[in-house]
């Protein structure tokens, strides 16, 4: 059945019963606002929103379950970047009226699965029709302990730079099916002092300069050390984007213990020392990388 | 200059300095997540997201400042509906690459003005290009005191139904320039026991049945009592939508005091007794109204 025939109230009635809801939700989808308990203890609130746009972030023929998965996981990757835990998600679905309700249901299946993977409750949302491409926007709130929040700033000259996983070639499949590094990030801040961190969404070539600028330092990367996905070259690893891996800065004093404990804890996920932060050169970064994916270009 | 030529980082660099930022913001736009202080005391968190879509909620030729204003005020109207206070907003801007950066700047001027009106900080956001119509999605978090949260449910048979302001004809101008009834809603819950409340976004004909269904009661409206905007008829008042006025249920014992104190407090804004909630008839609502605006139709 087409959305045009179904209408919003009946669409919501079909979707709402299957939404994942965890503790702390006082009023979820169906109220004017979602109402939730605030986190206990000495914690900070985290807020993030992100979206996927048809023909930009996914194709018309993409499996809708993976579209939903990606739409949820993108903002969750930003929680990994600051070492936070996501809790509550709101979904905005903007869909052409002639799209089938089955397509929407499958998108929600992906959203639900991705949310459930990290105990995230879907507490509300909004639907609208459009005369253009479909768009799924997901905004997520959660928390981080005050002493575990990691920003882009905070990196120091001399810090080691590490990346998780492998880079490049994400468009083949990983950009739809990735799992945000929340578990890894939480483990890192529980066991180490991470000075600065970012998730690689636009590619190392765009995101490393952002971390360096925020930290007011330069950087030096050993290109040959970059962990490559099969079949990609160094340019891909730097520029493709959508890796959703973590890049972080940590004192070289922690290098050996980090590498050893990481191998024990996450034996299947590489952790690679790719370079270091340096003194800033005239306030600019010390090594120019090719650009990552630049929006609007 | 077109967005295509400007690029995302430079666009953000132009927009960020003018964003309204109030207390409680630890890290705003520019970090991977916004980081904010949680509310103190016995409060609940409120989360809401909403969007405006070109050709659906605004026209290509609409003044971009009013587009931004409307995009911010729509979710804030939902805070009014539950008697909450909004605090932090995230903006998602999805715009064709050939759109001018001046258009975006003017949209942000409207977003900023609307946020500042209610002391809301804009703490982050996301930009993406699209091959379709422009979309502005705004998600807002805030709080409500635990004993002042008003839901759609909670209305009782016999309750009086009141609406603020006047209904109908919103498309002429009000749908772009309305001010959410946050101040009025906060005053109501400070001084009265409001049983159930909703903001009229889809029209009385759609929103009143939602309140009644959630409260498991029927309703009875005196159509001739409806407060009409100039030049509209009763059908407009019921079906046009986008009134962004409050509809609420309150004990008839409070009627006289409410009407008197309201006139003193808000002399320029009508408050109209339009009917009452009734016993449910076979679990359905007791009076059929013409439908309000139905999405996807």
Structural notes for this entry:
2 copies of one chain form a homodimer. Chain A is of the alpha+beta class and 297 residues long. In chain A, strand 1 (25-27) and strand 2 form a beta hairpin. In chain A, 31% of the residues lie in helices and 27% in strands. Chain A has helices spanning 3-6, 8-15, 64-82, 101-117, 174-177, 182-191, 204-215, 234-239, 255-265; strands at 25-27, 34-37, 43-53, 85-96, 121-130, 135-145, 160-164, 194-199, 218-221, 246-250, 271-278. Chain A is built from 9 helices and 11 strands. In chain A, the strands form 3 sheets. Chain A has a 5-stranded antiparallel beta sheet, sandwiched between helices. In chain A, strands 3-6-4-5 form a 4-stranded mixed beta sheet, covered by helices on one side. In chain A, strands 1-2 form a two-stranded antiparallel sheet. Chain A starts with a helix and ends in a 19-residue tail after the last strand. The mean pLDDT of chain A is 91. The longest helix of chain A has 19 residues, at 64-82. In chain A, helix 3 (64-82) packs parallel to helix 4. Chains A and B meet through helix 1, helix 2, strand 2, strand 3 and helix 3 of A and helix 1, helix 2, strand 2, strand 3 and helix 3 of B.
């Amino acid at each position: 059945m087409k959305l045009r025939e179904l209408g919003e109230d009946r669409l919501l009635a079909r979707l709402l019963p299957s939404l994942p809801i965890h503790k702390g939700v006082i009023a979820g989808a169906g109220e004017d606002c979602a109402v939730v308990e605030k986190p206990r203890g000495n914690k900070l609130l985290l807020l993030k929103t992100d979206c996927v746009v048809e023909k930009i972030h996914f194709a018309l023929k993409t499996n809708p379950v993976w579209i939903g998965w990606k739409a949820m996981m993108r903002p969750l990757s930003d929680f990994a970047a600051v070492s936070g835990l996501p809790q509550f998600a709101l979904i905005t679905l903007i869909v052409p009226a002639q799209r089938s309700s089955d397509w929407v249901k499958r998108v929600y299946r992906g959203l639900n699965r991705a949310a459930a993977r990290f105990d995230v409750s879907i507490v509300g949302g909004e639907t609208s029709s459009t005369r253009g491409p479909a768009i799924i926007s997901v905004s997520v709130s959660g928390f981080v302990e005050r002493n575990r929040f990691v920003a882009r700033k905070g990196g120091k000259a001399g810090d080691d730079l590490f990346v998780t996983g492998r880079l490049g070639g994400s468009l083949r499949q990983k950009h739809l099916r990735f799992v945000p590094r929340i578990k890894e990030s939480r483990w890192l801040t529980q066991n180490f002092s991470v000075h600065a961190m970012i998730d690689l969404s636009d590619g190392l070539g765009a995101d490393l300069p952002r971390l360096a600028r925020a930290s007011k330092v330069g950087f030096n990367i050993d290109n040959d050390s970059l962990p490559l996905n099969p079949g990609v070259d160094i340019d891909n690893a730097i520029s493709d984007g959508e890796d959703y891996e973590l890049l972080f800065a940590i004192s070289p004093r922690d290098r050996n213990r980090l590498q050893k404990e990481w191998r024990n804890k996450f034996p299947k996920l590489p952790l690679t020392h790719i370079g270091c932060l340096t003194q800033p050169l005239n306030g600019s970064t010390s090594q120019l990388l090719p650009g990552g994916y630049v929006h609007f270009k």
